[in-house]
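Appendix B. Raw example, untouched.
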Amino acid sequence: MTFHVIVQPSAKGDIARNANWWAENHSVEQAIVWVDTVELQLPELTHNPERFGFAAENGLFAYPLQQMLVGSSNRRSYRAVFTIVENVVHVPTIRRASQDEISTTDLPSRPAT
């Protein structure tokens, strides 16, 4: 089964925010590489997204939260957090793995439809 991936506006904002951090703390070129890499990795969720593990915050929500590690280089240090509703994968946030855990106020009480 092929899944449809929807990157929510909040996750798109996370990508932009992280790219700005890369540009300010490393270089514009590295920021571009990071964005391009993440945008190439997210479509991996179209095939068998269930293979990815649950996020640490999974039990905090009324719906399951899973995560896929994304980012450039061999050390993918960002988490694309997602939920699956029927054949749609919703990605509401992309965070650095070292960030604080997601709280119940960071995501909606129900997955996007």
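End of appendix B.
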